[in-house]
Amino acid sequence: MSSPIKLADHFHGERCAISFELFPPKTEAGMKLLETNVERLKAFEPSFFTCTYGAGGSTQSRTLDVVERVRQMTGLPVASHLTCVGSTVAELRDYLAEARRRGAEYIVALRGDPPKGSESFQAVEGGLRYGNELVELIRESFPDQFGIAVAGYPEVHQEAPDAQTDLDNLKRKVDAGADIVVTQLFYDNDDFYRFRDACVAAGIEVPIVPGILPVTNFKQAQRIAGMCKARIPDDMAAAMNENDDADYQFKVGVDHARVQTIDLIENGVPGIHYYVLNKSDAAAQMLDGLSLGAPSS
């Protein structure tokens, strides 16, 4: 039996590696639709998929259902998200053991957002406070069993007092054992390039992978920007404001993400992580004809 591909190794090839993020559907019909879209996305030769994990662990079992199903369907590595929210160290270890048993090879390790109604993050008794502590736990409890991705914020995490503090927090996560950094979504590549330069200056040497969301309407873009503090460029806002026709707005959003993708490739990113919201139409149009993904065997 061959050894699993290490997470960072996906980003050392000649081609720009890509990956897709999914979320756990709430219904069986949603799972069937997810499977259809995964089959379509697989044609773009991603290196792996990831699946999110609901606030407070609310979708733990469904997350692992997706991990297991996508692993069976595609034969590709699948990463489970994992947060510190609402879980003790013992519960985190139990989740990790079950994730490994069900085929997860990678973990996206996150502190997590404060529970709904809370203004700040509070660790439960016996739990963890910071993302770097979660990375340390994984490395100590499951040595060499998981690849680990952590989150970076080109426009600064909304709770960080300044960019330097945010960068120091990221460095702690990498020093604890993270293999790659995947960024929060952004709409202006210059924000990513400034962030990448700052990471290099701080001594962060793991691959920095940009995260892109192909938005399909302006209301969606505004809502997401408000949630994660992402700036919408003036030209994108102006174009989407010209016409509220659904097809027009879809095209503007997809075209913007395609331009972002091409520019990122030309500027030497090792890979791109796409937040596809369990859909494939936008990703398929955005990636059509581009030389991305794993090389064909």
From TrEMBL:
GO terms for cellular component: cytosol. Its cofactor is FAD. The keyword Flavoprotein applies. Keywords: Amino-acid biosynthesis, FAD, Flavoprotein, Methionine biosynthesis, NAD, Oxidoreductase. Pathway: Amino-acid biosynthesis; L-methionine biosynthesis via de novo pathway; One-carbon metabolism; tetrahydrofolate interconversion. GO terms for molecular function: FAD binding; methylenetetrahydrofolate reductase (NADH) activity. The keyword Flavoprotein applies. It catalyses: (6S)-5-methyl-5,6,7,8-tetrahydrofolate + NAD(+) = (6R)-5,10-methylene-5,6,7,8-tetrahydrofolate + NADH + H(+). Its EC number is 1.5.1.54. GO terms for biological process: methionine biosynthetic process; tetrahydrofolate interconversion. Coiled coil: none annotated. Pfam families: MTHFR. InterPro entries: FAD-linked_oxidoreductase-like (IPR029041), Mehydrof_redctse-like (IPR003171), MTHF_reductase_bac (IPR004620). Gene3D superfamilies: 3.20.20.220. Belongs to the methylenetetrahydrofolate reductase family. This is Methylenetetrahydrofolate reductase. It comes from Stieleria maiorica. The lineage of its organism: Bacteria, Pseudomonadati, Planctomycetota, Planctomycetia, Pirellulales.
